């Protein structure tokens, strides 16, 4: 797989889209922090109120992906993405307006979080399906590298931006600035003017379960979906118990713990920008396998890290940085491979199913993390979570995947269409991947 350089410089339409995507990614991270801050600091809502707002923002990721993916499959995505950004901007603008009018309440914040979360699901699924039509096939991997790089940077910087805005302007007015970010995102996506192909005609009997059937019928998609689902569940077990083990049991200061954990973001950014070079040198499958060794194998060291204080923080930061490199690279390679393998007429529908699976396992993993922490202790639960991450990589280590030279080689043979779905009698669920 040889990738051409300079995509942002060469492609004006992608440059606008990428700018909009980047602003939207930052806005999503700011929203996730700023809305609960409004509940806590402005309304003094307590743990129950903050949890209600946070849960409302997450809930659409469980309820909507299948429906949204099925709906988007038959529509042009760019206009809908612009509309989703405008909906998020309008919903967030309600918060400062209600604050100034003395009408702000927890139920209102919950409603805003639901609306913003639902529009975010529409934007993200639409973006996955739209990008392959925006750039040439030879530029798809580079486009994903740019998009994943900005998403990773947003994950690292977003919470800090939200906290800084809340400190400077107060949480409600910080939300106003967040609303403006979505307007900027809408402008960027709108300025990507390359004509979007007409949506494909829906096959008879495809139904809402069609995306799940595409995943189930393709060995590459099955492996990536199984890996991502197990990975996310195990990551929840690890995350829930890591803070207890490091901060409470090992007496690591909260500041040092935060710095150590943030090293994962720096590593992920490095992995994102180097992923395609690794794929060119090693082959796509071997580069993917190497990324998974780092992202799923390195965390096994966490439970046996020695020392305390700065020594423990340093060890944890090194583990997080190295595993982050693998995670950033794996994300780029996974998204590109899925976009190439999935039939063009199933991109939105399949991504809806993929999102549902990986988000659907998160509450299960969190609950399991709590139960394991109570039963085995925080260190034992951390070890179990890390072991789960390692196990998640096994579906990706088959010879078929390890020997893949180019992502295009994973496409179904010419002339073979994806399996025709059985007539759908009822709706079903699908989940997303990493």
From TrEMBL:
CDD domains: MFS_MefA_like. It holds the Pfam family MFS_3. The keyword Nucleus does not apply. Residues 403-434 are annotated as: Disordered. Coiled coil: none annotated. GO terms for cellular component: plasma membrane. It is found in: Cell membrane. The chain crosses the membrane at residues 16-39, 45-68, 108-131, 254-276, 288-305, 311-333, 354-374, 380-397. PANTHER family: INTEGRAL MEMBRANE EFFLUX PROTEIN-RELATED, MAJOR FACILITATOR SUPERFAMILY ASSOCIATED DOMAIN-CONTAINING PROTEIN. This is Transmembrane secretion effector.
């Amino acid at each position: 797989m040889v990738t051409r350089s300079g995509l942002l410089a060469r492609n004006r339409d992608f440059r606008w889209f990428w700018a909009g995507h980047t602003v939207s990614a930052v806005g999503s991270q700011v929203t996730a922090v700023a809305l609960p801050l409004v509940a806590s600091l402005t309304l003094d809502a307590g743990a129950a109120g903050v949890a209600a707002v946070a849960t409302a923002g997450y809930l659409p990721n469980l309820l909507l992906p299948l429906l949204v993916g099925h709906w988007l499959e038959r529509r042009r995505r760019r206009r809908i993405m612009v509309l989703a950004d405008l909906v998020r901007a309008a919903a967030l603008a309600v918060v400062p307006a209600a604050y100034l009018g003395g009408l702000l309440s927890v139920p209102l914040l919950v409603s805003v979080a639901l609306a913003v979360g639902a529009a975010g699901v529409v934007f993200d699924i639409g973006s996955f399906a739209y990008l392959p039509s925006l750039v040439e096939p030879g530029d798809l991997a580079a486009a994903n590298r740019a998009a994943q790089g900005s998403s990773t940077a947003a994950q690292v910087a977003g919470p800090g931006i939200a906290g800084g805005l809340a400190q400077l302007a107060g949480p409600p007015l910080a939300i106003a600035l967040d609303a403006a970010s979505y307007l900027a995102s809408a402008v960027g996506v709108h300025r990507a003017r390359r004509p979007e192909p007409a949506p494909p005609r829906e096959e008879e009997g495809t139904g809402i379960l069609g995306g799940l059937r595409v995943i189930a019928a393709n060995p590459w998609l099955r492996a990536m979906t199984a890996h991502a689902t197990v990975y996310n569940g195990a990551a929840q077990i690890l995350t829930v118990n890591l803070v207890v083990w490091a901060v409470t049991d090992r007496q690591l200061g909260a500041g040092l713990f935060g710095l150590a954990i943030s090293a994962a973001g720096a590593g992920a950014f490095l992995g994102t920008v180097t992923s395609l070079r690794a794929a060119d040198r090693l082959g796509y499958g071997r580069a993917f396998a190497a990324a998974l060794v780092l992202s799923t194998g390195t965390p096994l060291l966490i439970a046996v890290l020695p020392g305390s204080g700065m020594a423990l923080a340093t060890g944890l930061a090194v583990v997080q940085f190295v595993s982050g490199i693998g995670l950033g690279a794996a994300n780029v390679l996974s998204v590109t491979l899925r976009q190439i393998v999935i039939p063009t007429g199933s991109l939105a529908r399949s991504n809806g199913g993929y999102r549902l699976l990986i988000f659907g396992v998160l509450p299960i993993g969190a609950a399991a993390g709590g139960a394991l922490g109570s039963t085995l202790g925080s260190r034992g639960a951390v070890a179990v979570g890390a072991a789960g991450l390692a196990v998640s990589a096994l579906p990706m280590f088959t010879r078929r995947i390890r020997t893949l030279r180019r992502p295009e080689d994973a496409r179904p043979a010419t002339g073979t269409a994806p399996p025709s779905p059985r007539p759908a009698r009822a709706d079903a669920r699908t989940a997303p991947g990493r």
